[in-house]
Amino acid sequence: MFTKEQFGIRLKGLRQKRREAQNVLGALLGVSTAQISDIENGKASTTLEKLAIICEHYQVSADYLLGLTGAPVSFHRKDEG
Predict the structure, then answer these.
(1) What is the value of pTM for the model shown?
(2) Cα separations (Å) of 22 from 13, 67, 73, 78?
């Protein structure tokens, strides 16, 4: 089941695994560091467009970020075959 808290925890984990600062993710999404912090702390959510960017950037499925699966299934673009 989706919760903003779980989404934030998973997003933060992916970001930290890559050793990226919040401002790097913020720049990619076109939002402030404070907005990234709010998302990671479960205080805010994001748009579908930004969710797609996050999935592509971290190579995970939306199902994983949304808490619908426990495994960060690899994301593959349709044009990659």
Answers:
(1) 0.87
(2) 12, 21, 23, 28
In this predicted structure, what is the pLDDT of residue 70?
Answer: 84
Which amino acid, residue 54? I
3-class DSSP state for residue 16? helix
**Could you tell me which residues come within 8 angstroms of residue 22 by beta carbon, excluding any fewer than 6 positions away?**
15, 33, 36, 37, 40
The domain defined by 4-75 folds into 434 Repressor (Amino-terminal Domain) (1.10.260)
Spell out the domain ranges in the chain. 4-75
